[in-house]
Amino acid sequence: MPKPGELTFTAPPRRSKPPRHLADLTLAERREAVAELGEKPFRAAQLSKHYFGHLSDDPEQWTDMPAATRARLAEALLPSLMTSVRDISCDDGATRKSLWKLFDGTLVEAVLMRYPDRVTMCVSSQAGCGMNCPFCATGQAGLTRNLSTGEIVEQVLAGARALARGEVPGGPGRVSNIVFMGMGEPLANYKAVVGAVRRLIDPSPEGLGISARSVTMSTVGLVPAMYKLAEERIPVTLALSLHAPDDDLRNTLVPVNTRWDVREVLDAAWHYEGVTGRRVSIEYALIKDINDHGWRADLLGRRLKNHNAHVNLIPLNPTPGSKWTASTAERQEEFVRLLTKHGVPVTVRDTRGRDIDGACGQLAAAEV
Ligand code: SAH
């Protein structure tokens, strides 16, 4: 258990790595891997089309290949990365949380949320989290390990396959949006996460072909990584988990603030906005009597106004062992009113999945 305020940036060394998977590789790397198996390089694109384009991980369906080739490619490039432990649903099946066991027994969760006009998948980037925010369940047990690119992509594809097969109420559908808001701090697992983003947005057969604008990267504010992300020139939406406009409070709510303070994270966010043109989303979990004061709404409004940002207020979701609760409806309305007065756009997040411990900050991946 990490001590209060203790941060873990690098994952503990791993005894073994997840098996290499098609989704870890670029198309060029897949061609090489296929050639090493003694197959023609064009099989890489065929295999990629089945996996990403047709969402098929079943070699029986790859009828454009000889049986021996199918078996060889499936064994070498589509190893099983995760097995299903449990799915739980609420909202009449429109919200579904999946618990997965990875090759080494590590547990992670992903959440699928179906809305009338879109399907959003909330994925995990790490098992556990090293950022230790006291109001978030994931941080409380610390960081277990980073996920590989393949392990992140497979969470999305598992959801995509379930939708395509019509297993989610509402008829067959597609994943339209992805949020890196599950377990972990995505920018602390930078390389694997950026690899996953590329696989998800690259057009078929290289990737899943989701629009970059429909992908949201959420961060506690790892400033150097935010600048680096801007340099990738991928127009993903950046969400910054701010939760307090002043350093005194943010140092305790988001302990990484002791490393990079409010001014520095906001500067990095404005830089990101300047480079990508994408409006930045400022995440603010409203916690009763902790960060919901009128003067804090005013200070937040002053810090954000005249910037291309919008505030996403999240009523605090309960987590085990925490005495904090969501703000009252009156305080929340007043907070919205004050931000609006400063000309800052605000939305209140409809938090899905609270009944199944699948909402923001509730993912802890326990087997019981
Ligand atoms: N580590 C990244 C990704 C996790 S995103 C980040 O912090 O941004 C999860 C979002 O839910 C973050 O904005 C997080 O601050 C917020 N959150 C965490 N615990 C919460 C809780 N108990 N109630 C509401 N939101 C919470």
Automatic annotation (TrEMBL):
PANTHER family: 23S RRNA METHYLTRANSFERASE (PTHR30544), RADICAL SAM CORE DOMAIN-CONTAINING PROTEIN (PTHR30544:SF5). Residues 1-20 are annotated as: Disordered. Its cofactor is [4Fe-4S] cluster. Its main location: cytoplasm. Binds 1 [4Fe-4S] cluster. The cluster is coordinated with 3 cysteines and an exchangeable S-adenosyl-L-methionine. It comes from the Bacteria. HAMAP family: RNA_methyltr_RlmN. Specifically methylates position 2 of adenine 2503 in 23S rRNA and position 2 of adenine 37 in tRNAs. Reaction proceeds by a ping-pong mechanism involving intermediate methylation of a conserved cysteine residue. This is Probable dual-specificity RNA methyltransferase RlmN. GO terms for cellular component: cytoplasm. The keyword ATP-binding does not apply. S-adenosyl-L-methionine binds at residues 184-185, 218, 241-243, 317. It comes from Embleya hyalina. [4Fe-4S] cluster binds at residues 129, 133, 136. The keyword Membrane does not apply. It is found in: Cytoplasm. Coiled coil: none annotated. GO terms for biological process: rRNA base methylation; tRNA methylation. The active site is at 109 (proton acceptor), 360 (s-methylcysteine intermediate). GO terms for molecular function: 4 iron, 4 sulfur cluster binding; metal ion binding; rRNA (adenine(2503)-C2-)-methyltransferase activity; rRNA binding; tRNA (adenine(37)-C2)-methyltransferase activity; tRNA binding. It catalyses: adenosine(37) in tRNA + 2 reduced [2Fe-2S]-[ferredoxin] + 2 S-adenosyl-L-methionine = 2-methyladenosine(37) in tRNA + 5'-deoxyadenosine + L-methionine + 2 oxidized [2Fe-2S]-[ferredoxin] + S-adenosyl-L-homocysteine; adenosine(2503) in 23S rRNA + 2 reduced [2Fe-2S]-[ferredoxin] + 2 S-adenosyl-L-methionine = 2-methyladenosine(2503) in 23S rRNA + 5'-deoxyadenosine + L-methionine + 2 oxidized [2Fe-2S]-[ferredoxin] + S-adenosyl-L-homocysteine.
